[in-house]
Design goal:
single chain, 406 residues, mainly alpha, ADP-ribosylglycohydrolase fold, two-stranded antiparallel sheet, 5% strand
């Protein structure tokens, strides 16, 4: 009897005369989240410069790119990067995890924000134009020895850099304000990008009610991204991770997320962003019901939703939602859908990997991809450290309960 599942459909059913229970530790889910996200990041990075699906298939064939390859002329800066090198998506996610752990389990949003701010301004120093953030660094704040290994030039968005060289972090109620020139381009706030979305997955694992998960993730994103749809979309991604880690089907993840958004819809700081993001979710879900797992549908989403720039938070949210609603037990196929389009391929790949990894755990990470990750060991160690922070290991260890003996 074949066993199939879809994130939007039925979960894998283990068929036997006497069922047994298999549970997964939170640490295992965190490892899946971090590692599969990193695979999606480095899988999608070489495609990011392609403007359309037709360009991708012309170059890589009708199935698109399905292997982790090197990244020539990275970020159009004339730098060639090797296969398996992660980008800002993974490096900021790891920085988020460490900053949350430093803040502690009972930390206030204000304490979390200060720790995140300090982590991010350290992260931004090696980015092009990020050196001006040096004035914001508190030398009294110490970081784990391994974390600086993730602070390297990695194609950061201009909006993120511009925000982090300001004097203080933005908040949901007081957005960061800037008007600067970076790389010869004028960059003005608020940022409409997805730089807050791709770093919030660790927040989804905090032992807090989903309302707090959403609020913390929005505040985390608002440090750099003051546009309401951008920080609301970040809160939504944290909720996707939070509910996926509870083994929910995607339709239930979406419904629970909508329920949380409803609770914030009367707050003026969230109202407009929620309305816009729900439009993205509803459209993507409907497309997945009509025609799931279709690269042409995936590629067309931003244009259908009225976005010329597919790198904005709104189309990224639509891409992520469609990919998740189309996902099957074939993780590689789901991840290929996530990256093969003319949008923000590495960020969508990373976020979809974070969520699928949170649901299916470390076993979901394709071995051949994981072996190509240049920082496989370091990412694994960071995930284990964060797992120890969020988990009560005496009760969260994975276990098998064998069927009773006759």
């Amino acid at each position: 009897m074949s066993i199939k599942n879809s994130v939007c459909g039925n979960r894998i059913a283990h068929v036997s005369q006497t069922p047994y229970i298999l549970t997964m530790s939170k640490t295992d889910k965190i490892k899946g989240c971090f590692l599969l996200g990193a695979c999606g990041d480095t899988l999608g990075a070489p495609i990011e410069g392609y403007k359309s699906l037709s360009e991708i298939t012309d170059h890589f064939g009708p199935e698109g790119l399905g292997d982790i390859i090197d990244f020539p002329n990275a970020y159009n800066h004339g730098t060639d990067l090797p296969a398996g090198r992660v980008t800002d998506d993974t490096t900021m996610l790891v920085t988020t995890a460490v900053a949350l752990a430093k803040a502690g389990k009972d930390a206030s949003i204000e304490t979390m924000r200060e720790n995140l701010w300090q982590g991010y301004v350290n992260w931004v120093l090696p980015q092009r134009g990020g050196g001006a953030a040096k004035k914001n660094i508190d030398p009294k704040v110490k970081w784990p020895d391994m974390l600086p290994d993730f602070w390297f030039a990695c194609g950061a968005g201009h909006g993120t850099i511009a925000a982090l060289i300001q004097d203080k972090p933005g908040t949901v109620n007081v957005p960061v304000d800037y008007d600067v020139v970076l790389d010869g381009k004028q960059v003005k706030s608020p940022s409409h990008g997805c730089g807050g979305m791709m770093r919030v997955a660790p927040i989804g694992f905090l032992d807090k009610p989903p309302e707090e998960i959403f609020e913390i993730a929005c505040e985390s994103a608002a440090i750099t991204h003051g546009n309401p749809p951008a920080y609301v979309a970040s809160g939504i991604i944290a909720l996707y991770v939070h509910f996926a880690a509870q083994d929910m089907q995607m339709k239930d993840v979406l419904q629970n997320t909508r329920n949380i958004l409803q609770k914030f819809s009367g707050n003026p700081a969230y109202t407009g962003g929620i309305k816009t993001c729900l439009k993205m979710i509803d459209h993507a879900e409907q497309k997945a019901l009509e025609k799931p797992h279709d690269m042409t549908v995936m590629d067309a989403l931003p244009r259908e939703l009225g976005f010329d720039r597919a790198f904005n938070a709104e189309p990224v949210l639509a891409h992520v939602t469609y990919a998740l609603c189309s996902a099957t037990e074939n993780i590689k196929s789901a991840m290929m859908l996530a990256v093969n389009h003319g949008g923000d391929s590495d960020s969508v790949g990373a976020i979809v990997g974070n969520i699928l990894g949170a649901r299916h755990g470390e076993k979901a990470v394709p071995r051949e991809w994981r072996e190509k990750l240049l920082q496989n060991k370091e990412i694994t160690q960071m995930a284990e450290d964060f797992g120890r922070f969020v988990s009560d290991l005496s009760t969260q260890q994975a276990y098998n309960r064998a069927p009773p003996q006759p």
